[in-house]
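Collaborator request, handled under Task 6.
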Amino acid sequence: MVWDLIKLADYLTQRKDINPTRIGITGISLGGMHAWFAAFADTRYAVAAPIIGVQGFRWAIEKDIWQARVDTIKAVFEEARIDLGESAIDKEVVEKVWNRIAPGPASQFDSPFSVPAIAPGPLLIFNGGDDPRCPVGGLETPTKRARKAYAKAHSSNNFKVIVQPGIGHDLTPLMVKEASDWLDKFLKQ
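Structure tokens returned to the collaborator:
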């Protein structure tokens, strides 16, 4: 996933019609997760605005709040459960599958570590207040750590988290507008 986005940045920075210092990235759900990881892995993404994609994988495992995320690709987890000889999908199966799909999201690349590392790059995180796939509780630690990292980098205005009350794992017009405005703010300077 991240390798593809690094290769995309390689391609975009080579194009004559693109300013290589003004590349932004956004995405929705899995695309939001891609935007978050791309901004973490490659500073050529000058600004990021992941929408309903940032979550705390370890937090979800520890709090036993991973079911909605797993249900999006349940067949994968069912096959893994069978391969592992388990009678049910549990947090051990979930962690093993997540680490197999993308090594590190429940450890060194999880949001409490990767989100603060994006500083000082502009980052807007947008989640629904009632999102079962990306629960807001999983953003508390990464948000606290990111605020410290951005303050230390003297770039507190480059970090923003918006939680839209009453919204689940759904894209709203407000999310689109805020992400667009965020990208314009930093890319049209």
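The cover message to the collaborator said: "The radius of gyration is 17 Å. The chain has nine helices and four strands. Please let us know whether this matches your experimental observations."
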